[in-house]
TrEMBL record:
SUPFAM superfamilies with a match to the protein in the record: Osmotin, thaumatin-like protein (SSF49870)
The family this protein is said to belong to: Belongs to the thaumatin family.
PROSITE patterns given in the database record: THAUMATIN_2
Protein name: Pathogenesis-related protein 5
UniProt entry tagged with the keyword Transferase: no
Domain of life: Eukaryota
SMART domains referenced in this protein's UniProt entry, alphabetically: THN
Pfam families tied to this protein: Thaumatin
Record's keyword annotation contains Transmembrane helix: yes
Signal peptide coordinates: 1-20
Residues that span the membrane, as ranges: 339-356
Amino acid sequence: MPSIPFSPLRFSVLLPFSLARRLTSAPTRFASTGSWVRFDWANALRFASIYDDDDPSDLSGFFQRVSICNRGTVREKAPFSIKRVLEYRNEEQRIGRKESIFLSTLRAKRSEGARIFTMINDCKETIWPAVIPGEKFEGGGFVLKAGQSMVFTAPVGWSGRIWGRTGCSFDRDGNGPCETASCGSTLKCGVAGKTPATLAEFTLAKLDFYDVSLVDGYNLPIAITPVNGNKHGGGNCSVAGCNSDLRENCPNDLAVKTVACRSACDVFDTDQYCCRGTYGGPSTCPPTQYSKLFKSACPGAYSYAYDDRSSLFTCSDGDYIITFCSKRKGSGATTIKSIFSWIIPMFATVISWWLWI
């Protein structure tokens, strides 16, 4: 085997490519610790006690400290996003809560079977999420400004639905109308919202079931992202939801101005479109032209009553991020990264060979 003489020119040319290859081959090594660590919640609570962080001012620093002694993989997002983890101080002051949402959430996670729900508003405008049954979720309704997040816990056995209301105008007593998905005229919902409304539905058990449904129409994009779930428990822990804005392509028959898109069942109220009567089964109620349109825009959401095969998801022992106005980010960056991940090493090999000969 011939010896390879050292060449300063070859070294100076190949070094940048070698470093670039290292960076592209292991990007998570340089990722934000707080946003890519699967947290051990007992350790998180222990750190909160040690550092007296009942209400930490530096959440990023807190989670970086917590991650030092945490276990788990680096490729699973934590339910707390550092960039928009919570605006819990303002919320606590508004409702007069004595105990920190932060610490109470950590305590609740230690309880057997608790699930953490993180709701994020990625919309450009304020929305008013609603939940039924909502005892564990601010009484069933609350305000969520653009960019804000709220965290809740729900026990195993909870079964309910979550949706977002738009264009609301509530007074100090929590009374007022909404442009879409209102549940009467109150902030706190005790009944289902008015159609059309995009729904996030959950049934929590040993194996959780969850889905995003357009059966009652569409008013906001919603995505459900499981985190820290156990796929070995029988679930697939896949992302469910709709990232497209159906209002842009809503058929004229179903459009409600430009604020929402009604379901065909809601508009026409026939057995065929509502999957009832002689059409009340999966074999007699196939997808219609309208449900096919919904499905093409939102493949991961229910488009009609019997759209179970590609729309119902399961996960074991996971937490959930519910994102309103979710967009699949990073497709362009991923493409560029993937291109450079093979172009740079190939280019370096060619130059190395050229210098060698």
